Amino acid sequence: MKKNNERNCLECNEKLVGRKDQKFCCDYCRNSFNNKLNEDSNKAVRNINRILRKNRRILANLNPNGKNKIHLIQLAELGFNFHYFTNIYTTKKGLQYIFCYDMGYREIENKEYLLVHKQEYVS
């Protein structure tokens, strides 16, 4: 039976000795507990980052010189996912560029896209 003032590690249930606000007996238990707690959200974030990195890699490979035109079909065949991007930049002229980190694109005409690298003045 547990005494009123007895505290146990949240991970391994070992008796805690020391500070009153202590929750874990060691760093291993603290890390293990938090990894289990965040496992589902970390998995979702990893999957999203994997898609974003793939999108960026595709754009970088298709645009080695900083500016290029490419057809929608070419992007789709390489597995580009248009639903995932990091930000949208709108120019003073109202043109919208969609970015995956530092690699961007915008639709220009007839399902063609202009690929660009983010410039220093684009924030």
Number of domains: 1
| Shape, per Cα inertia axes | elongated
Major β-sheet strand ordering: 1-5-4-3-2
Q: Termini, distance in Å?
A: 60 Å
Class from helix and strand fractions: alpha+beta
Q: Tell me the β content.
A: 15-25%
Largest sheet: 5 strands, antiparallel
* Number of beta strands: 5
Helix content: 25-40%
Low-confidence stretches: none
Radius of gyration, CA atoms, in whole angstroms: 24 Å
Distinct helical segment count: 2
From N to C, what is the helix and strand string?
HEHEEEE
What is the average of the pLDDT values? 90
Task: Report on the architecture of this protein.
The chain has 123 residues and is of the alpha+beta class. The chain has one domain (27-117). It is built from 2 helices and 5 strands. The chain has helices spanning 27-62, 72-77, and strands at residues 67-71, 87-90, 96-100, 103-109, 112-117. Strands 1-5-4-3-2 form a 5-stranded antiparallel sheet. Strand 4 and strand 5 form a beta hairpin. The chain is elongated and about 75 Å long. The termini are far apart. The mean pLDDT is 90.
Short description:
With 123 residues, this protein is α+β, with helices and mostly antiparallel strands. Helix content is 34%, strand content 22%. A hairpin with a 2-residue loop joins strand 3 (96-100) and strand 4 (103-109).
Please tag this protein with its features:
5-stranded antiparallel sheet; 2 helices; 5 strands; alpha+beta; 123 residues
